[in-house]
Specification:
alpha/beta, Rossmann fold, 2 domains, 9-stranded mixed sheet, about 25% strand, globular, Myo-inositol 2-dehydrogenase, nucleotide binding, NAD, Gfo/Idh/MocA_oxidrdct_glycsds
Length: about 400
């Protein structure tokens, strides 16, 4: 059994989740030829560094991620820093020859995402991108049904990623609302997942027509300790302009002729994380909602929808639970992702969602932004490199 030394860059919520997922992979995938060792973490915040060593179990922690990347003992890295640091860190990781697992949106734009994917390809390193929803066992079953023709030829797709994390007008104007640091709003933050999920199930998108809106145009400036988009500002605090979109709607054509409708909001009052995909075909349809991630709604005969519970025949469900009715959770999806990344590194081939997949989602988001600006249909550029959409 070979050990792979993990380097973690940024010890926030997602960095902590990556760390747990690496360790959990050994329990759920005992046949993996490698084991992850939490070797070194990097975070400019002293509290984050203490958490890395004292709670997560990393052997050492640095203030500067460059020191971590310069360590020849580090075999792979997780990039969990804010969006505006992804490009810089990913290029540095590729230059150092380190395979990397990066969260989405991979870059703030399609250009940044292309540069990341190209750098990884040039360096010959495998990658992983945090498209965790595609790892739900119910999605694995849906994909198999679609490929087997159980619902006939796909005619249309509906995707809705609706959240309320920014519905409070007093939510602080953190970096997520700044175009220079976050890039787009819901198109990159939420619909990048939706675009990837739709392409994973149905196939590549060819062209899009979109519209966007910023409904909460000004927000209170953040206090010194405001770190996330859940931070709240004071009613009498100075305010600043929101620079990216709260809401987006996209009509799309797939390569195979199917029509797609994508909708996303970060200011919806009611849904917390209502992330849904519906695929309709000539002989049936199916529906999946992240809020009920262990269920698939399936209509493949005239009697209409029935609920099919995830079970050990669906994807990797049996790795986590012995039978239907005992559900998996969000963290389990990241454990599947970690196992794919570890296998990719061990076998030297791309198994996890790739940097090219991250670039593909970014091209759709950028095409949607161009369409919203020009009020025209926009073709989605094709990406180079190894994607796992059709794998």
């Amino acid at each position: 059994m070979k050990n792979l030394n993990v380097g973690l860059i940024s010890v926030g919520w997602m960095g902590r989740l990556h760390s747990r997922a690496y360790l959990a992979a050994a329990h759920h995938y005992p046949e993996l030829p490698v084991r992850a060792v939490l070797k070194r973490a990097a975070d400019p915040d002293a509290g984050g560094r203490r958490h890395a060593t004292d709670v997560l179990g990393y052997e050492a922690a640095d203030a500067d991620y460059r020191d971590l990347l310069a360590d020849p003992a580090i075999d792979l890295v997780s990039i969990c820093a804010p969006n505006f640091l992804h490009h810089e860190i990913a290029l540095a990781a590729a230059a150092a020859g380190k395979p990397f697992w990066i969260e989405k949106p991979m870059g703030r734009s399609a250009e940044e995402s292309r540069e990341i994917a190209d750098a990884a390809a040039s360096a010959g390193v495998v990658t992983a991108v945090g498209f965790n929803y595609r790892h739900a066992p119910a999605i694995a079953h849906a994909r198999r049904l679609i490929r087997e023709g159980a619902i006939g030829d796909v005619t249309n797709v509906r995707v809705a990623f609706l959240a309320d994390y920014s519905s409070d007008p007093l939510g602080a104007l953190t970096w997520r609302f700044e175009r220079a640091r976050a890039g787009s709003g819901v198109l990159g933050d939420l619909l990048s997942h939706g675009f990837d999920l739709a392409q994973y199930l149905v196939g590549p998108l060819a062209r899009v027509s979109a519209d966007t809106e910023t409904f909460i145009r000004r927000r209170p400036l953040p206090s010194a300790d405001a770190a996330s988009h859940f931070s709240r500002g004071a009613e009498d605090a100075p305010a600043g302009d929101v620079e990216n979109e709260d809401y987006a709607v996209v009509t799309a054509r797939f390569d195979n002729g199917a029509i797609g409708v994508f909708e996303s909001s970060r200011i919806a009052v009611g849904p917390h994380a209502e992330y849904t995909i519906e695929v309709y075909g000539t002989r049936g349809s199916l529906r999946w909602d992240f809020q009920r991630l262990n269920e698939l709604r399936l209509a493949d005969d005239p009697s209409g929808y029935r609920t099919v519970m995830a079970n050990p025949r669906f994807g990797d469900f049996g790795r986590f639970q012995p039978g239907a009715g005992t559900g998996m959770g969000f963290d389990d999806l990241k454990t599947i992702e970690a196992s794919l990344f570890l296998r990719s590194v061990a076998e030297g081939r791309q198994l996890a969602p790739s940097a090219a997949d991250g670039w593909a989602a970014a091209e759709i988001a950028d095409a949607a932004l161009r369409s919203a600006g020009t009020r025209t249909w926009v073709d989605v550029p094709r990406v180079a490199g190894v994607t796992t959409i059709g794998a």
